[in-house]
Amino acid sequence: MVHYLVFQNTGEFAGWGDESALPDILNDFAGTPLIVLTPLEDGSIMEGTVARVEGEDCWAGIYYLPEIGEFEVKFFGDSNEEDFFSENYFEAMKHAKKLVG
Question: How far is CA 3 from CA 35, 36, 53, 58, 82, in A?
Answer without folding.
Answer: 10, 6, 19, 26, 26
